[in-house]
Amino acid sequence: MDVRIEKVDAIEVLDSRGRPTLSVTMTLTGGVIARAGVPSGASTGSREAVELRDGDPDRFGGGGVRGAVGAVNGEIAAAIGRRTFSGQAELDQTLIELDGTENKSRLGANAIVGVSMAGARAMASAAGVPLWRSLNPSAVAPRLPVPHFNVVNGGVHAPNDLDFQEFMVAPLGAPTMAEAVRAGAEVYAALRTLLAGRGEATGLGDEGGFAPQIAEPEAVLGVLVEAIGQAGYRAGRDGVMIALDPAASEFHRDGMYSVAGEKLSIDDMVDRYAAIADAFPVWSLEDGLAEGDWDGWVRLTARLGDRLQLVGDDLLVTNPAIIADAIDRRAGNAALIKVNQIGTVTETLAAMATCRAGGWAQMVSHRSGETEDSFIADLAVGTGCGQIKSGAPARGERVAKYNRLIEIEAGEALPYGPGG
């Protein structure tokens, strides 16, 4: 379907951490108006598409995005305004060629992804279909994804001594999306009560999870299992499972990993994960080793790939070429999917197609700096990937995604679950 873009513009707004980001508005000829809020990460891979930040120390500590806003309102608007596009792929290719760099650093990935997302939403509206249906590849059945709720924060997401970054609960055994969200909220409430009863802090990290002063990851896992039971659920595949994102690049130095003050080799780290899998109902492990530790990833996959979902985030950065390389190396068996990590909707869909072709799972993800935009909920449903993480079942920018999934379920008879 051809669409004609009348204009596009952006403004500087705040993300959920109080840092600047962009809100992009696109207007099509005929009156369709669509907006997109641009997410921003704290724990980032070195090969991610590059955000454009101003660097002015007198504004937001250098983190302002006036330059990226100017790129949208100037060069990008001039290139795509009053122009007809045949679809998302043509729009995104125009943006990629306009920027002209491999990592989108000239105009800024934050500028480009905002325009790409707004374009996808505008094209769906013009076609009279929900966004998830517009994002649906022809060979893929849409599906409501299992939500992975980040209920304990550590690493760069929280001011505590916990090296592992995210501890998530995933209601794999829930019958519906609405019941999955209820399970996540009830476990979250039970966890708050448990932590408070033990004198632990119940302040929140960047993604809405609690940030207790607990250093040992196994101790956190024990509390999570207890909270799942206290909330009235079974800890296991027919109930609520646990997923981990240690974000190991953040505690990897000079070939060693440092967890709770203990120095661990690659084999020590793999042994620790094996012991965790033996002792706790963990089903998914994301970024268990550092982004540059390819040998370690191969060894981790050989040891635990038949027992755990091993998700690459910093390792893969939603890049189709890097994902294809990892599949060939047998380094992991699943990819985290972040639209702003690669920079356009089309490239994101290509990354997911690469995973499907290689027999890999995918988990669509938010960022630590979010807006109320629920784009990723539609992306997860339309691509049928079966998994999403968007933080805790609390705070408006996180809940917006889960509520959107409930809304989609209420209007469509779609299956729920991780799929194949």
Provide a descriptive summary of the structure in words.
The chain is of the alpha/beta class and 420 residues long. The protein is built from 13 helices and 15 strands. The strands form 3 sheets. It has an 8-stranded mixed β-barrel with strand order 5-6-7-11-12-13-14-15, surrounded by 5 helices. Strands 3-2-1-4 form a 4-stranded antiparallel β-sheet. Strands 8-9-10 form a 3-stranded antiparallel β-sheet. Strand 8 (252-253) and strand 9 form a beta hairpin. Helix 1 packs across helix 3. The model has no long low-confidence stretch (mean pLDDT 96).
List the defining traits of the structure above:
single chain, 420 residues, alpha/beta, eight-stranded mixed β-barrel, four-stranded antiparallel sheet, 13 helices, 15 strands, 19% strand
